[in-house]
C-alpha cells in the first residue's frame, strides 16, 4: 500500500473512531441541564473563594449566551467536541477567555454527566406524571357519563357478567394512577445531587455540595461518590415506569381496536384518529390505537438495552454508560406523544350504548345471579345451585334466548328442584339489576362506580 493510501486509511479510521466515540449529536439534548449545572457549580466556586467574582460573572453571562445560541439554532455542534459538556465549555471559553477554563475546577465529566442526566430524568418524572394525571381525569370524566351504560364484563375474552362502561374505564384510571405514583416515587427516591463527586472519589478542593444541591433543586447531595458516578438506576427506573405505562396504553388500545370492529361496534373513533384503507374506501382503520399498541416494542427494547449495558460494569465510571441516554430520550418522547394522543382518542370517541346493551344479551351474563339467588334465598349449597343454573342456561339455549329473557314458567321447567321458584327471580336476572347487585366495595354497581369516581376526583384534586 502506498504512503498516500495508508494516510487516507488512517484519516478514515480516525474519523470513524471520532464518530464512534462522540456522543454530542445525541447528548446535546441535555444542553439546558448542563448549563444549569455549570452555573450552580461556578456560583459555588465563587462562594468558596475558588473563583473570583469577575470570573464567575463572566462565566454566567457566557453560559447564558451559549444557551441562547443553542436555542436559536446558531450554535454549531461538532464531532470533535465529543460531548455536550465540551461543546458548551469550548464555546464558553471562546466567549469569555481564561475564565471559561476555570469552570471545570473541582468537577469531572463523570459527575457532570450524572448531574445533567439526573436533572433531565427528574424533569421528565414531573412532566410525564402530569400528563398521566390529565389522562386519568379524562377517563374519570368519560366514566361519569356511563355509570348506567351496560357492557359485557369479560374473562378469557368470554362474556361473563354485566358491568357498566364507566366501571370498565375506571379500571384503566386505576392502572394509570399506579403509573403516576411510580413516577412520583422515583422522583422522591432519586432527587439527590451527584455534583461534587468528581471522577469517583470526591475532590481535594474545598467545595460545598450543599450549595450546588440547593441551587439545582435536589434534596441533598449523594453520599458515596464512587456509587454516584456509576449509578444509572434512576435511568432504569424511568425506563421501567415508561414501559409499564405504555403496557397500560397498549391494553386500552387493544380494546379500542376490538370495540371499533364491525363485530363489536361498541365505539367509533373520531376521524382524526382513524384512517381509510388505501384500496377499500368503505373501511376505516384504527391506525392510531394500533400504533399506540405497537410502541411497546421499542420502549421495552430500550429498557432491556440499558439493563444489558449495566449488568457487568465494574466500579466506577465506564464509557459503556454513554449508551444510557438515547434509549431514555426515545422512550420519553414516545410516552409523551402516546399519552397526548390517547387522551384525545378517549375524549373524542363515540359510545354506542345500544350495541353494548345488545351484547349483554349474549352469553347469559346474569346466570351467576340465579346461582346466588338459590344460595341466598333457597339455602342451597353453591355447587347444587351451580348445576341447576347450568340446566336453566341449557333451556335458554334451546329456546334461543338469553337467560334474562326467560319467563318464570320456562325457568321452572328447567329443573324439578326449582319447579316452584318465586317470580322475584326475574328481577334478579334482569341485566341492569344484575349489574347493580354487585354492590360490594370495589364492585360494578352504579353506586359503587360513582363512589370510585368520587375517590379518584378527590385524589386528582390533591395532586
Automatic annotation (TrEMBL):
Molecular-function GO term, any one: argininosuccinate lyase activity
Compartments (UniProt record): Cytoplasm
GO CC annotation terms, alphabetical: cytosol
Biological-process GO terms, alphabetical: L-arginine biosynthetic process via ornithine
Pfam families on file: ASL_C2, Lyase_1
Enzyme Commission number: 4.3.2.1
Pathways involved: Amino-acid biosynthesis; L-arginine biosynthesis; L-arginine from L-ornithine and carbamoyl phosphate: step 3/3
Domain Argininosuccinate lyase C-terminal: 365-436
Catalytic activity entry: 2-(N(omega)-L-arginino)succinate = fumarate + L-arginine
Gene3D superfamilies listed in its UniProt record: Fumarase/aspartase (C-terminal domain), Fumarase/aspartase (Central domain), Fumarase/aspartase (N-terminal domain)
Transmembrane helix among keywords: no
InterPro entries according to UniProt: Arg_succ_lyase_C (IPR029419), Argininosuccinate_lyase (IPR009049), Fumarase/histidase_N (IPR024083), Fumarate_lyase_fam (IPR000362), Fumarate_lyase_N (IPR022761), L-Aspartase-like (IPR008948)
Xref: CDD domains: Argininosuccinate_lyase (cd01359)
Domain Fumarate lyase N-terminal: 11-301
Keywords: Amino-acid biosynthesis, Arginine biosynthesis, Cytoplasm, Lyase
Kinase found in the keyword field: no
UniProt-listed NCBIfam families: argH
PANTHER family, A to Z: ARGININOSUCCINATE LYASE (PTHR43814)
Sequence similarity: Belongs to the lyase 1 family. Argininosuccinate lyase subfamily.
Protein name (record): Argininosuccinate lyase
Amino acid at each position: 500500500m502506498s504512503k498516500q493510501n495508508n494516510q487516507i486509511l488512517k484519516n478514515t479510521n480516525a474519523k470513524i473512531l471520532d464518530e464512534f466515540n462522540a456522543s454530542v449529536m445525541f447528548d446535546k439534548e441535555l444542553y439546558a441541564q448542563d448549563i444549569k449545572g455549570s452555573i450552580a457549580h461556578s456560583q459555588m466556586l465563587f462562594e468558596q473563594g475558588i473563583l473570583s467574582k469577575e470570573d464567575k460573572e463572566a462565566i454566567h453571562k457566557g453560559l447564558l449566551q451559549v444557551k441562547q445560541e443553542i436555542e436559536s439554532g446558531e450554535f454549531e455542534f461538532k464531532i470533535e467536541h465529543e460531548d455536550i459538556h465540551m461543546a458548551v465549555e469550548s464555546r464558553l471559553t471562546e466567549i469569555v477567555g481564561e475564565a471559561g477554563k476555570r469552570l471545570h475546577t473541582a468537577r469531572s465529566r463523570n459527575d457532570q454527566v450524572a448531574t445533567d442526566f439526573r436533572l433531565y430524568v427528574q424533569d421528565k418524572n414531573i412532566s410525564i406524571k402530569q400528563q398521566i394525571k390529565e389522562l386519568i381525569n379524562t377517563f374519570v370524566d368519560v366514566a361519569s357519563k356511563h355509570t348506567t351504560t351496560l357492557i359485557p364484563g369479560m374473562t378469557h375474552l368470554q362474556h361473563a357478567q354485566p358491568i357498566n362502561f364507566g366501571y370498565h374505564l375506571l379500571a384503566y384510571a386505576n392502572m394509570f394512577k399506579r403509573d403516576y405514583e411510580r413516577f412520583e416515587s422515583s422522583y422522591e427516591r432519586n432527587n439527590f445531587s451527584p455534583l461534587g463527586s468528581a471522577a469517583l472519589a470526591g475532590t481535594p478542593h474545598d467545595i460545598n455540595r450543599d450549595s450546588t444541591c440547593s441551587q439545582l433543586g435536589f434534596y441533598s447531595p449523594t453520599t458515596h461518590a464512587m456509587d454516584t458516578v456509576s449509578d444509572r438506576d434512576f435511568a432504569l427506573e424511568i425506563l421501567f415506569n415508561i414501559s409499564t405505562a405504555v403496557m397500560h396504553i397498549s391494553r386500552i388500545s387493544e380494546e379500542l381496536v376490538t370495540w371499533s370492529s364491525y363485530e363489536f361496534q361498541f365505539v367509533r373513533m373520531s376521524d382524526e384518529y382513524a384512517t381509510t384503507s388505501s384500496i377499500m374506501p368503505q373501511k376505516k382503520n384504527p391506525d392510531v390505537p394500533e400504533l399506540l399498541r405497537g410502541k411497546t416494542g421499542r420502549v421495552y427494547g430500550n429498557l432491556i438495552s440499558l439493563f444489558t449495558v449495566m449488568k457487568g460494569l465494574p466500579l466506577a465510571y465506564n464509557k459503556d454508560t454513554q449508551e444510557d441516554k438515547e434509549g431514555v430520550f426515545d422512550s420519553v418522547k414516545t410516552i409523551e406523544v402516546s399519552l397526548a394522543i390517547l387522551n384525545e382518542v378517549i375524549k373524542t370517541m363515540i359510545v354506542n350504548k345500544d350495541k353494548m346493551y345488545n351484547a349483554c344479551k349474549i352469553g347469559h351474563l346474569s346466570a351467576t345471579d340465579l346461582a346466588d339467588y338459590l344460595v341466598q334465598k333457597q339455602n342451597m349449597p353453591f355447587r347444587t345451585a351451580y348445576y341447576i343454573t347450568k340446566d336453566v342456561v341449557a333451556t335458554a339455549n334451546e329456546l334461543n334466548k338469553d337467560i334474562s329473557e326467560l319467563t318464570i314458567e320456562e325457568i321452572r321447567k328447567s329443573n324439578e328442584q326449582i319447579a316452584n321458584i318465586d317470580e322475584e327471580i326475574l328481577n334478579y336476572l334482569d341485566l341492569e339489576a344484575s349489574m347493580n347487585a354487585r354492590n360490594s366495595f370495589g364492585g360494578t354497581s352504579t353506586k359503587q362506580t360513582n363512589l370510585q369516581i368520587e375517590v379518584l376526583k378527590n385524589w386528582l384534586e390533591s395532586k
